[in-house]
Amino acid sequence: MRKVKSNFFVSLDGVVESPDKWHFPYFNEEMGAAVGAGFATTDALLMGRVLYDEWAAYWPEHADQPFGDVMNSIKKYVVSSSLHAAEWENSEIISGDVAQKLTDIKAQDGGDITMSGSATTVRWLLREGLLDELNLLVHPIVVGDGMARLFPPDEPSIPLELLNAQTFKSGVLNLSYAAATD
Amino acid sequence: MAARIVVTEFASLDGVMEAPGGEPFKYPGWTFEFDRGDDGNQFKLDETRQSDALLIGRRTYESFAGAWPQREGPFADKLNSMPKFVVSTTLKDPEWNNTTVLDSGDATTQVRKLKEELDGDLQVPGSHRLVQELIESDLVDQINLMVFPVILGTGKKVFEEKPERRTLRLKESKVVGDGVLVLIYERTA
Q1: Which of A92, A95, B126, B131 has the highest Cβ tally under 10 A?
Q2: What residues make up the domain containing A174?
Q3: In Å, how far are A175, B2, B29, B61, B64 from B58, measured between CA atoms?
Q4: Residue B13: its chain A contacts at CB < 8 A?
């Protein structure tokens, strides 16, 4: 059974937008190890259409960047009802009965299916019980600025279970949650 | 020596701090569904024992003053006896023991003055609107969060969308009870 894992850099006030503007001062060896461990078990990426558009426009032209080869060659699943053709190498569109199709993909042999971003899709997967891990690196900063948050208002309630919690020297929390099962 | 402002909140993972104790809300008493364990209870007791006064908004005052005077025990005794300052322009003649109303309408100025006049820790539980103003005025010295494993999805948040960016220092973190986090953040110098 493959696991779907979602990873976010998030601020204490829940901002996930533009981590390039606030995350870097907190990057250290511990965080590098945590991020690396996540990717070591990954053999596919899952994303929503917005992130797909962004990455599909960037990575094919930047294959020489760090991770460029991996990003271009790795299997990519894109959840979208509006995208008709995914031209980025090794991309596959999932539409229609997305929950059933993802359930089938999870039942296949293989490694973890990892998400970096795509907050809307992540919240939907959580509600559908399809997300196995919500991994949050909570940075000790209030970002504010009206930037987009992982959990916007007026959404359904989702009970969770804390799978793991670790504190880095930088004050970043490495938290792992799953949807509560009972 | 000035007093320190210590904000303390029960929060969901998505930062909602509204009505943790059974006040009217979409999910009344939502924190009671979680086991925060003996160490979680001990943390809340120690936190209040270490405080020298309460600083609260009017709604939190109404909620506390409606519950604590009838109760007994170390936690209730401390709350009932300690000095309480309520920021409100509408509260008159508060009945809860040892309560002073700060009624000028300018919370920031009054709290700044209070910080200068007092020593020790001024604890600010709940008090959503007041906390937003104190964060904006940079008067908060410490934030204690008890984070429960749930996304509530609706309700007032500890951090509303403030314009100003602030770095914090994580002073302490631990897991209590059934997946409940206790986090203590301090201001950075």
Answers
A1: B131
A2: 4-179
A3: 35, 24, 19, 5, 10
A4: 151, 160, 177
8 Å CB contact of B183 and A173 = yes
How many independent structural domains does chain B possess? 1
Contact assignment for B153 to A158 by CB distance below 8 Å: yes
CATH number, domain at A76? 3.40.430.10
How confident is the model over B90-108, as pLDDT tens digits?
999 999 999 999 999 899 9
User: What residue in B sits closest to A23 (Cα-Cα)?
Assistant: B167
pLDDT digit string, tens, across residues A105-153: 999 999 999 999 999 999 999 999 999 999 999 999 999 988 999 999 9
> For chain A, how many structural domains are there in total?
1
β-pair partners for B149: none
Nearest to B149 among A126, A160, A172 (CB): A160
Average pLDDT on B51-70 reads: 96
Task: Report yes or no: A50 and A79 within 8 Å, Cβ to Cβ.
Answer: no
DSSP state of B49: H
Minimal Cβ distance to B163: which of A12, A144, A175: A144
The CATH number linked to B38 is 3.40.430.10
Q: Is A179 on the interface with B (CB under 8 A)?
A: no
Minimum Cα–Cα distance from A150: chain B residue:
B14
Model pTM?
Answer: 0.95
> What is the extent of the structural domain holding B44?
4-187
CB contact under 8 A, B181 and A165: yes
